[in-house]
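Supplementary notes for students who missed Thursday's class. We covered one full example, reproduced here. Read the sequence, then the structure, then the short commentary at the end.
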Amino acid sequence: MPSPASELVVHEDALRENTARFHALTGGRLMAVLKADAFGHGDVASAVLEAGAGSIGVTSIDEALALRQAGIGAPILSWLNTPDADFETALRARIDLAVPNLELLYAIAGAARATGTAARMHLHVDVGTGRDGCLPRDWATLCALARELEAAGALRVVGVMGHMSCAEDPESGQNVRDRLVFENAIRTARRRGLRPHLLHLAATAATLTGTAPGYDLHRIGAGIFGIDPSRTTDDLRPALSLTSTVVSSREVPAGTGVGYGHDFVTPARTCLALLPLGYADGLPRAASGRAEVLVRGERRPLVGRFSMDMVVVDTGDRLLRPGERVTIFGPGRDGEPTVAEWAAWSHTIEHEIVTAVGSRASRIPHTFATSTTRSPELSGDIACLSTPLVGSPSSAAARTTSTRSPSRPRPVSRELSAR
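Structure (token representation):
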């Protein structure tokens, strides 16, 4: 079978090491957030559960159900759904549900009555983001009605959650305001007779900066994949590498325009190599004229505007052979650009880069690979955490399944290879 033209490699050992770090940092109170196809990393649920996560968080019910279909038995919380979502199927699949308003409260209670299954709910309060979550002025009413439905046997309020708005800046005064709103929400819930035992406010940034300590869960998404929104640590390992293959190359004279609009014109004689991926594959067009790749161990610029399906590398005096591999990004150990650099070139965040790349899976299959670098101080901890949870498939078995919703099929390679 021919090699894929472009390949997105998931470094599972990096995911495990990052998960183990957060397991230690949170005292085991770790929920792995695997929304958006695990931040673009694919079928990694079993790996992060084996490495120390105790539960999983996703946005939609479809994402949660895909995990159940993949054999994941760990607790799963879904927190972003419309009132007409398939709550009945979610309850049958033992999915916890976040409730930010009365409309969802009544919809889920109706599904509970229809299925004869009491819903497990996390009431969601808006502590300061101004987007999802119940407004503080409506919170007491939500709690009171949830208690009535709880007394009727339709549901159990097991958690209260919020999401901090400025946790990446530990000096921001908004952090204090967010915590005060959350503490008041907890007191209100308890005064209304609710007894939530899973209180969670911190995501990756708040966990790393310590701006929301002392609660029962930490929802870690970006950090597991080597992204630190707070820029406060260098301990996390990036978990993706993207490579591509030279389609053709040519030597051109000075004055040659490259790509649409001729934004770049060669200042001297040089060689150009064509790569078969572009903004349709997730390479941000905003990085045109700034991005670099690794060619034969050397950084070289991508020149001209990014096209839908192709980009061009200025390789200087080196005329590359068709079939040569070029590294688009990786952990940075060998001098290749990192996801953080691509985010800077694109004036965006790392989250956007990793979730966008690889959407055309027929061209960029995921391959799970184990790299050779491991932090010595964590190697023992990771070995101790390698036993699969009850109800969860082994890591090898998980590579044959997909965490993406069946409505968005994404055939991917799951061949385990050492790199």
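Commentary. The chain is about 30% helix and 20% strand. The two ends are 19 Å apart (CA to CA). If anything here is unclear, bring it to office hours.
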